[in-house]
Amino acid sequence: MNPKANGQLQTEWSWWIAAYLFLGGIGGGAYAIAAVNWFLGESASASTAVGLWIGFPALLIGSVFLLVDLGTPRRAVLAGMKPGTSWIARGFWIITAFMVLALLHLILHAFTAVGQTASGRMILSVVGAAGIVCAVGTMAYTGILLGASKGIPFWRTGAVPVVFVISALVTGHFTIMLIAPFYRGVTAEAVQTMSLEAAALVVLEVLAILFFLQAAFKTPDPRESALRILRKRSFVIGYFILGLAVPFVTMLIVYRSVASTELSSYVPIAAGAALLGLVGGLILRQSVLVCGALPTLNIAGFEFRRIARPKDPKPGIGMLPPQ
Amino acid sequence: MNRTQPISAGQPSLSGLRMPRYGMVIDLKRCYGCYACVMACKVKNHTPPGVFWSRILKGEAGTFPNVVRQALPVLCMQCDEPSCLEVCPTGATVKLDNGIVIVEKDKCMGCKYCMMACPYGARYSVDEWESYFPDGLPLSPYEEFAKQAWEDKSGVGVATKCDFCRDRIAEGRDPACVEACPAKARTFGDLDDPDSEVSILIKRYRGEVLNPEFGNKPKVYYLAPR
Q1: Mutation for B interface: A2, A65, A82, most B CBs within 10 A
Q2: What is the CATH classification number for the domain harbouring B218?
Q3: How far is B85 from chain A (nearest CA, A)?
């Protein structure tokens, strides 16, 4: 095994962390959309009811993915000890607060009649406002975690949190659209509104990802990573085409047609597009993670980075090279 | 001091009761990339396959046909402002009074954030001490010993890194890589002592650090190869 070389891709954070960031984004995005809808007076709408159900479980499952990736999970309780400097410690407290508020909001909204009284609505408003702050914090945290990593120049930009926040809203919205058909109160108008919102969010995400990539092209080390991510078939096909372009077109079609046709015929189409968008969101995070590379070291005019060479013919000590 | 003469690695010095600030100087003109430091580190610290607390990078400069190749020994830079310490959520990464940055294995939860924060790529994490031999062969007796020694000192499932062989320093010896270097390219000592060899070398030959733009203030200095 060769020593680690600068310019080499990081391999420590991959699918588990991608899934953690993805589910954190879904939880934050779905809850934020639901809580904002609640404040707008749509407390009985499909997106409010479904979104409140998504926030807490998504974060809970996401935390399990993080625990699986930890080298020593039994020490996870120590994670919040240094919130002054570490974004993992800050994230620990942000996510903990968000999970408590999301669960409280869900219980109050779905299992009690608190929302029927003026004082109850006041309580829900306080919980919802605090929940939105924590949800935005959770969405931003998934990007800031990477943006604060000094060792990976590709991530070290303010564009990463922006991309991740918008992608969190998109994936949260797609998750609501995926589950909403099972909610008995869903109407054609609701699906139409959700489709338009989803298409608008996808446009925002495309702008954000283009901004992120063009910023990466300005400096040598991030440029290498940007080229690598653009050469990844899963990123171009899985994320850009199937995860953004196809859902965008589908959402526009659903928006234009659903009011004049039977709602049930559009449910599988919208759900399918939402599912593609969700897979795209996961691919985005995994691609950004695995295309991160250590910076080039240099001194006195020398550059020290990974030198491309044929694969070592000797697989290990004690084995002869293939004849 | 004549740069072409071998320079004694010297002992870390204590001036009275003052705490030293340990650092290292690597003379790139002397280093020819023999990997003796890499092997000495592996033997001393029992690092498993794929873990290189001390490593050699090869770099190139110039344009054809005037091209030169250079070896660059790299280890933990024991930064004065370590980004690994900043991001450690559990407080497992600690900077000692003598400037050496260590990982307290009983506090590390293995989140690997420090590995993403270190721009020099000095940190490693190991989930299991695997054999150096292929095809799933069982550990050899030496490997069994090394595995146990590694688990006692560094541990699995936690971040690990070079600590300037602080157990050797405590015995008044130089780090293993310094002692093993056949070209005497490495010098170890107290950066705060103006009379120490490291201070004199840095001052006289204008020692520089790798990528100062990172802002970590490394304590490993390099003397330019030309």
Answers
A1: A82
A2: 3.30.70.20
A3: 9
Does residue A292 form part of some domain? yes
> Do the chains contact at A82 and B89, CB–CB below 8 Å?
yes
DSSP SS3 for A293: strand
Number of domain units in chain A: 1
How many C-beta neighbours within 10 Å does residue A139 have? 29
pLDDT tens for each residue of B157-176: 999 999 999 999 999 999 99
Name the residue facing B89 among A71, A81, A150 (closest C-beta).
A81
ipTM of the complex: 0.86
| Number of domains composing chain B | 1
Q: Over pLDDT 70: what percentage of chain A? A: 89
User: Does B141 or A189 have the greater pLDDT score?
Assistant: B141
Q: Is the dihedral of CA A267, A139, B88, A82 positive or negative?
A: negative
> What number of H helices and E strands is found in chain B?
7, 9
Nearest to A301 among B61, B86, B89 (CB): B61
Q: What is the token pair recorded at A299?
A: 């001194």
A164-187: pLDDT as tens digits = 999 999 999 999 999 887 777 677
Mean pLDDT across B45-60: 89
**CA A313/CA A298 separation, integer angstroms:** 29
Cis (ω within 30 of 0) for the bond into B65? yes
CB A298 within 8 Å of CB A304: yes
- pLDDT greater than 70 at residue A47: yes
Three-point CA angle B23, B29, B30, nearest 5°: 75
For B67, phi then psi, to 5°, come to -120, 140
